[in-house]
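Session log. Operator J.P. requested a structure for one protein chain; no other inputs attached. Running the standard single-chain path with token output.
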Amino acid sequence: MIYLDNSATTKPCQAAVEAITNALTESWGNPSALYDFGIDAARQLRSARHQAAAAMGAEPDRVFFTSGGMGSLRYRKAHGQARQAHHHLCH
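Structure written below.
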């Protein structure tokens, strides 16, 4: 498992600020929903997953985003130690 954690110690780059601002103001839908905003949010989430995977040399279906350290720990616990080397957690 590769665990990436900024720990709020690094100023985000301008591209990240713009992406987050867009997600919060323009594409705020639930990516699991079937309405237009949700479909757009799901598309952007897939794109982010592919970009993160490419940057880490990983497969996109092995990259998981969590809201924080606790969510990452819970994911790891739920999916066991045996599989941990095959997943990338980002929060």
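Operator note: The chain has one domain: 2-90.
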